[in-house]
Amino acid sequence: MVGKEPAYTYLKQCIQAGKHVITANKEMFAHHGGELMQLAQQNQVQIGFEATTAGGVPIIQTIKQLLQVNQIQGITAILNGTSNYILTEMRKEEISFTAALRAAQELGFAEADPTNDIEGMDAFYKLMILCELIFGKQPDWKSVTLTGIQGITVDEIKKAQLEGKRIRHIATVSIKNGNMHAHVKPCIISEGHPLFPVEGVENAIHLQTDLVGSLTLQGPGAGSLPTASAMIEELCMLPLKPKATKEQNRHEVTTI
């Protein structure tokens, strides 16, 4: 279910009814995730949202574990597999943006309407979800630099490659002097950058922490199977409910 509504209303009603919920809806969760997480805590249920952020990469569970002792100071990430695939194909095959996008659509990596992917909104929503989880707040959305990849040319990619560099679509957030700074935009990076080797539909999230130091998680970020994997993994982590009596079963209502 895509879009903010009716997904937000349905999830809120389920949580208020004492139901655990799992969602892959990144747009809705970027807007309402903080409220829903607080509501789930109040109703003593769990809300799973691993699939909203990086496909098959278990970044949400990793962050939840790190936050027990580490302070995460910043994120640098490739959060959209479609855009990364297009940039990779443009470089490897020396083809235009349009041709690479068409190939992504034929392989099922891009939607018929790829606007959210190529203009950066998909990565933006994911970054806002990570900000809410890590810092308990989001930056002012209007302050976030948001630039897509549709204007990148083959010549720009070739020039970067001749210099031993690559163009990646990168989402970044950091805290400086108590202020949150974020952007989602194409960046030229060199070989020493942690996201330099991330190719195709892969996603990768590089975390800077105070204790464990730097940590990078990488894996498939586009396609139905990575999303399904993330949702089923969270389903398996839900607490088992004690067997109900016949009287309890008679009054129980299950929301699907």
UniProtKB/TrEMBL annotation:
Belongs to the homoserine dehydrogenase family. The keyword Zinc does not apply. Residues 6-50 form the Aspartate/homoserine dehydrogenase NAD-binding domain. Its EC number is 1.1.1.3. This is Homoserine dehydrogenase. Residues 58-235 form the Homoserine dehydrogenase catalytic domain. It comes from the Bacteria. Keywords: Amino-acid biosynthesis, Methionine biosynthesis, NADP, Oxidoreductase, Threonine biosynthesis. NCBIfam families: PRK06349.1 (NF004976). Pathway: Amino-acid biosynthesis; L-methionine biosynthesis via de novo pathway; L-homoserine from L-aspartate: step 3/3; Amino-acid biosynthesis; L-threonine biosynthesis; L-threonine from L-aspartate: step 3/5. Pfam families: Homoserine_dh, NAD_binding_3. InterPro entries: Asp/hSer_DH_NAD-bd, HDH_cat, HDH_CS, NAD(P)-bd_dom_sf. PANTHER family: HOMOSERINE DEHYDROGENASE. SUPFAM superfamilies: Glyceraldehyde-3-phosphate dehydrogenase-like, C-terminal domain, NAD(P)-binding Rossmann-fold domains. It catalyses: L-homoserine + NADP(+) = L-aspartate 4-semialdehyde + NADPH + H(+). The keyword Oxidoreductase applies.
